[in-house]
Amino acid sequence: MAKHLLGLENFTKAELVNYLDNAEGFVEVSSREIKKVPSLRGKTIVNLFLEPSTRTRTSFEIAAKRLSADTINISGSDSSVNKGENLLDTTQTLEALAASVLVLRHRESGAHRFLATHLKNTSIVNAGDGTHEHPTQGLIDCLTLRQIYGDRFYGGLTIAIVGDVLHSRVARSNIFAHRLLGNKIRLVGPPTLLPDYYVEKSAFDYPNLTVHHSLKDGIEGVDAIIALRMQLERQDGFFVPSLKEYSKNFCLTENIIKATCPKAVLLHPGPVNRGVEVASDVAYGTRSYVNRQVTIGIAVRMAVLFLLTSGTKEKLTTVNES
């Protein structure tokens, strides 16, 4: 078992399935009246979030506490990085304080891979690095789809990823995962938000990936839609004329979904900008699994923390209540 979870790009299919199988076991734990197990008793999990987060940070905190770990949460304003200390010195200090796992969100792509070469005793979990990857969200999306579609999840699905692909780490993690699984991926959005290397496909060696600049054509007949938030905080240029113009062409409404892919389910990593990428009645309507993703997220992150600290490659078979 790898010491760190830096991304899904270099995963094998077996590793991906192992994470999902273990997460499935923790879904059962989360349904109990007493949602706590002793698996990480004596371990310390540090959540260091140097970018804003609600869902991911809270989810990791709940996951660690349900595993009986000691949990420390540090934001950018609370850390010595805010005083000018560099990231390596900060994380080596946390390692010296015997942190078992460091869950890190950072604005720079590749920050986690850099730290992994320097930290000897602390495992690193990538909770989002710049526009690179968000591996736990990719695992959440995969487990959600596996629960919905069963065996079809393994190579039998067509999935549309719609919106700001250029700046989306969630899109990248999903692309890497579904390349392993053999599912078809359609990237849908305006040309300015779909990078050339996706269009060329060569960067991913992924023959099942296609690019579409028409929402109607892109979602025609798909099984699932992963809607992406317009990440204005990462955009240093005018990638679309206006949010109103973007919404006019790419907002997912019930009418267009019914006309093109009436059986499709909707996923979204959150937060949802209602009326921009998804209409309000779709965002939390009958086809939406947005809240289910949040619930599954706790189980996925429990599995990640468990596997990194236990080092096991085996599926979790027994989880006893504390």
Topology, pairings included?
Layout: H1 13-30, E1 44-49, H2 55-66, E2 70-75, H3 87-96, E3 101-106, H4 111-116, E4 123-129, H5 135-149, E5 158-162, H6 169-181, E6 184-188, H7 196-200, E7 209-212, H8 215-219, E8 224-227, H9 243-250, H10 254-260, E9 265-267, H11 280-283, H12 290-310
Parallel strand pairs: 1-2, 1-3, 3-4, 5-6, 5-8, 6-7, 8-9
Any descriptors?
Rossmann fold, 12 helices, globular, 2 domains, 322 residues, disordered C terminus, five-stranded parallel sheet, alpha/beta
Description:
The protein has helices at residues 13-30, 55-66, 87-96, 111-116, 135-149, 169-181, 196-200, 215-219, 243-250, 254-260, 280-283, 290-310; strands at 44-49, 70-75, 101-106, 123-129, 158-162, 184-188, 209-212, 224-227, 265-267. By secondary structure, the protein is α/β, with parallel strands linked by helices. The chain folds into two domains: 13-134 and 296-310, Rossmann fold (3-Layer(aba) Sandwich), CATH 3.40.50; 135-293, Rossmann fold (3-Layer(aba) Sandwich), CATH 3.40.50.1370.
Any idea what the CATH superfamily of the largest domain is called? Aspartate/ornithine carbamoyltransferase
Q: Which topology of the largest domain does CATH recognise?
A: Rossmann fold
Sheet of most strands = 5 strands, parallel
Number of strands: 9
Brief account:
The protein is α/β, with parallel strands linked by helices and 322 residues long.
